[in-house]
Design a protein that fits this description.
mainly beta; OB fold (Dihydrolipoamide Acetyltransferase, E2P); 7-stranded antiparallel beta sheet; 4-stranded antiparallel beta sheet; 2 helices; globular
Length: 286
């Protein structure tokens, strides 16, 4: 992590990840066969209507096709390069399988160029290997966890994240998620051993608006600064309180401040053993 000297208000407090040092021994250009163009949606759907606010512009990026299904099993793979991916916070690795095929995969912490991993039911629970949850010992950190067997990784995919196997019970594995929620996942689902790389990402301070615009983030308008017709917090002369007990989104749903936002009748509620800790001051993941 690099801290800039405060030569300007934007530089004061700005921090950046020194990618050249972390990725110095790897390729600077992606593997062409696994790269394709991708247009930015700007937060708009197929009808051109804004569905996600405050997104737009940003630098043009190439999309790397990442293998989240890991359907190439019982074939050892070697890490050729570790690369930066503009579409995700963790680093990716170009894996060369023994049969000659190359695929991009998420790379865990401490894995380096030249290391090997295997996707197999008989694989050892060591760094980078991928195997069913039923065969992973209690207390092991995992990432890229499936919710349904064969559906591909869904949980713990961003930089520095991991889930922890806490129990094996009656065909289900209890996993503590990064949100502190403990959830049951069917034991035939697969997961990779380790924690996602680039753990310093959480320490990044963007520092100035221009850098955020390059990332595709547009300025956010507070709800209290809007008109009443546009937001539940809006309206009133000058600075006014929001007028109701709980904070809400523009659509009127609860948000932030330690409120529960999960639907009471959501289908997957039966798999939750322990709800996540609420509020911005969430304690450690233990």
């Amino acid at each position: 992590m690099k801290k800039h000297k405060p030569t300007s208000p934007g530089r004061r407090g700005m921090t950046v990840i020194e990618y050249k040092k972390k990725l110095s021994s790897t390729s600077s250009t992606p593997h062409k066969a696994l790269v394709k163009g991708r247009r930015s949606t700007g937060g708009r759907n197929s009808q051109g209507r804004t569905t996600v606010w405050y997104r737009g512009n940003g630098n043009k990026r190439k999309y790397r096709e990442i293998d989240f299904r890991f359907n190439k099993k019982d074939i050892p793979a070697r890490i050729e390069t570790i690369e930066y991916d503009p579409y995700r916070t963790g680093f990716i690795a170009l894996a060369l399988y023994a049969d000659g095929e190359r695929r991009y995969v998420l790379v865990p912490q401490r894995m380096q160029v030249g290391d090997s991993f295997t996707v197999s039911e008989d694989a050892r629970p060591t760094l980078g290997n991928r195997l069913p949850l039923a065969k992973i010992p209690v207390g092991t950190f995992v990432y890229a966890v499936e919710l349904k067997p064969g559906a591909g990784a869904r949980i713990a995919r961003s930089a520095g994240n991991y889930a922890e196997v806490v129990a094996q019970d009656a065909g289900y594995t209890q996993v503590r998620l990064p949100s502190t929620e403990i959830r049951k996942i069917i034991s035939t689902a697969w997961a990779s051993i380790g924690e996602v790389s680039n753990e310093e990402n959480r320490l990044v301070n963007i520092g100035k608006a221009g850098r955020a615009r390059h990332m595709g983030l547009r300025p956010k308008t507070r709800g209290t600064a809007k008109n009443a017709v546009d937001h539940p917090h809006g309206g009133g002369e000058g600075v006014q309180p929001r007028g109701h007990k709980r904070s809400r989104t523009a659509q009127g749903r609860p948000t932030g401040k330690g409120q529960k936002t999960r639907r009471p009748k959501k289908q997957s509620n039966k798999f939750i053993v322990k709800r996540r800790k609420l509020g911005p001051r969430m304690t450690s993941k233990k």
